[in-house]
Amino acid sequence: MVRIINNPQSLLVVAVPLLLIVQLLLPLSLGLGVTLKFGQRIRSSSSSSISMSRGMKNSLEKDEEEVDDCYLTEGTKSIIGEMECIIGQDDGGRGMKSLIVPGDLLKGAMCVAGLTCGSTVLVLSGFPCCVTHDIPTETDGPPGALAIARAVVALGHKVVIVTDDCNKAVFDAACHGHSWATTPPSDNNNNRKNRNSLSLMTFPGNDKMTRLDRERMKDLAIGCDLIIACERAGPAMDGNCYTMRGIDMTSLGLIAPLDTIVQLARDTSNHNNHN
Locate the D-glutamate cyclase-like C-terminal domain: which residues (predicted)? Predict the structure, then answer.
């Protein structure tokens, strides 16, 4: 099964509370013996969408809301709600309020907490909006993507960060320079294992995509269990990706068609569910 999380807020802000909530929810899948089995259904909203594919079967034994009501205290719910309110502040006046769906922060964390150990998670990132610079990468995505990758790896999963070719240098530096904190006892073997569980894959702009590139995308879509899109440029109705000021990043050749991976995962899910 592939679950797809698309978060419109800045990941640098979202990553820390999302991972704190994952830690709060770990007893649900570990200590309390509650197994979350996500089934053959598709959910969507303005701020997040989920589709199902390979790997985990059957319907949710407990819905997210039911698990929340049964095992989370009112105090914990209140803290999560406060985090969501902070994340949802639109200080820049960009109109993001209409994209926020109450409860999505908790549901996103539950997607991670409910993974079977050893799952493969894709983190799609990259918003090359600094179009006049040799390296057009903005600075929210890389540290946020690494923060999520670090937590997901610590939970026993593999992570592939996927971005555009033009962002490779920045994300590569972030991956190699990232500090892998380990649970005690901290040791080099554990650090080495963590580093081996994280990889980076990049793709060129749409006009430079080759058959091999499309095969790589297909392999990613088929082989993953969870897709998280964060601080990632998404296509407008005309298929192009724009900066906040309306600059067309796609026409400049900066944007790889990473949304294709999401669509391939959904298509694979639908095909498997009908067989």
Answer: 84-268
Structure confidence by residue, pLDDT tens digits, 119-163: 999 999 999 999 999 999 998 899 999 999 998 998 899 999 999
Nearest partner of 147 among 14, 15, 260, 27, judged by Cα: 15
CB 67 within 8 A of CB 110: yes
Structural domain boundaries in the chain: 3-274
Q: How many CB atoms lie within 10 A of CB 36?
A: 20
Q: Are 51 and 42 in contact (CB under 8 A)?
A: yes
Long-range interactions of 170-173: CB distance < 8 A, separation 24+: 170/135, 170/137, 170/142, 171/125, 171/126, 171/137, 171/142, 171/145, 171/200, 171/202, 172/200
Give the C-alpha separation, 3 to 269, whole Å.
10
Q: Is the dihedral of CA 11, 13, 18, 20 positive or negative?
A: positive
How is residue 173 written in tokens? 């530096």
- Is residue 60 packed enough to be buried (19+ CB in 10 Å), middle (13-18) or exposed (0-12)? middle
For 221-272, the pLDDT digits (tens) are 999 999 998 899 999 999 999 998 999 999 999 999 999 999 999 888 776 7
The secondary structure element, H or E, covering residue 6 is strand 3-7
* Residue 53 structure tokens: 């594919």
- Say if residues 68 and 106 touch (Cβ distance below 8 Å): yes
SS3 letters for 153-198? Answer: HHCCCEEEEEEEHHHHHHHHHHHHHCCCCCCCCCCHHHHHHHHHCE
Tokens of 78: 């209140």
Tell me whether residue 157 is exposed, middle or buried, using C-beta atoms within 10 angstroms of its C-beta: 0 to 12, 13 to 18, 19 or more.
buried
